[in-house]
């Protein structure tokens, strides 16, 4: 037996460091998706206009909304990817257990969400700058942000990414039971939404949506995301205990 004692936190950190290097290529995918989103946003996210007798005005709105959506989807699918069987087998190279593996995955998802939030916010500026120079636009409201708004923007996008990442982690663990869940889970979710709306529960569905998306207070939004993410992650950890151990 080795005389060197390793603490649980050291095991988690070593697994996190390994996962950060092993899944480094996923950040390249993030860059590609955000570049595509910038390209899609180059014509403006929305537009409006009006004309009078001697004047015609056309308004174009440039934002990083598409970049944010692509970033959140990226976080969701990355979380599914790190729950794959090959990724789980890599953990057997370390002296640890499933709890340490889950915590290392959680640290990676937090890191990925923060990087995604920062890059998505910066890409929003690129979209506005691109529109300003390519279409000879006048600088309007919202072109620049105050430092506090900039930090809040990073925090909000990171939290959305983390929320969907933990949801993706839960989906990924469920999929490990049987590959058919890859198709069944989306079908069940969409079916439940359609059934709820057609049964007259559209107000309740809207309330659930507003509970997260339309929260105006950042700290309350932070609390809601942590609670929901904690529930998703705890369920994923509980379900993973039902998976067969490697023989």
Counting H and I runs of at least 4 residues, what is the number of helices? 9
As an assembly, this protein is: single chain
- Number of spatially distinct domains: 1
The helix content is: over 70%
Task: Give the DSSP E fraction (strand runs of 2 or more residues).
Answer: under 5%
Characterize the largest beta sheet: strand count, sense, and whether it forms a barrel.
2 strands, antiparallel
Strands of the widest sheet, in order across it, are 1-2
Enumerate the spans where pLDDT stays under 50 for 5 or more consecutive residues.
none
Structural class of the helices, strands and pairings?
mainly alpha
Distance between the termini: 23 Å
What is the mean pLDDT?
A: 79
Shape annotation = globular
Number of strands: 2
Rounded to the nearest angstrom, the radius of gyration is 22 Å
Task: Report the order of strands and helices.
Answer: HHEEHHHHHHH
Keywords: Membrane, Transmembrane, Transmembrane helix
List keywords for this structure.
single chain, 247 residues, mainly alpha, two-stranded antiparallel ribbon, 9 helices, 2 strands, transmembrane, membrane
Describe this structure in words.
The chain has 247 residues and is mainly alpha-helical. It has one domain. The protein contains 9 helices and 2 strands, in the order H-H-E-E-H-H-H-H-H-H-H. The chain has a two-stranded antiparallel sheet with strand order 1-2. Helix 2 (25-41) packs antiparallel against helix 3 (65-81) and helix 3 packs antiparallel against helix 5 (98-134). The two termini are 23 Å apart. The mean pLDDT is 79.
